[in-house]
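Aim 2 progress update. The chain analyzed this quarter is reproduced below.
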Amino acid sequence: MKTKLLTLQDATNFFRDGMTIMVGGFMGVGTPPRLVEALLDSGVRDLTLIANDTAFVDIGIGPLIVNGRVSKVIASHIGTNPETGRRMIAGELDVQLVPQGTLIEQIRCGGAGLGGFLTSTGVGTIVEDGKQTITLEGKTWLLERPLRADLALIRAHCSDMLGNLTYQLSARNFNPLIALAADVTLVEPDEIVETGVLQPDQIITPGAVIDHIVIPLES
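Predicted structure tokens:
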């Protein structure tokens, strides 16, 4: 069986200008730090980032914003990273703010192969602008379309050799759903164990959806 393991340097072969990348994490917690650093060091630019937030200027995906590598952000909030707001106001960065529940459901639909979903969140607000509305039984709904990416970068606590994953506490956050919604998914685990060590009921993300596993530093 072909191994899914690859070095961090090999992972950079998946990076290219103009791609759409989903990144797990909540204000940097659960974001894969080595993969983000490698993305920054690779020099790629004009990226579209899909993430819950843009973390802080020096944490999570924040350095990608600070260094001008991103042309568009789709996120639920940006307030913890003032550089995101500054670049948005200056016209240097396209920011699409999405209610958090709507955002993660768009990602879930993208991973599940669904055409979208109906929600009342945002009806009658600027969230509705440019979107199709549907009236059912006298109630107005917004049709929200799925989100997918070229590449997903996620972090896990433990991976086996097949890419079956566990997560640690709140670092789990959006990683399991993001893993499903990209053409290629790279995981940065804290540790790798032999296949069979993880019990089936421990596994949150099945290895079938993980394309490559970045070898931890100590391995």
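Residues 166 and 201 are 10 Å apart (CA to CA). The longest strand covers residues 149-160. These observations will guide the mutagenesis experiments scheduled for the next reporting period.
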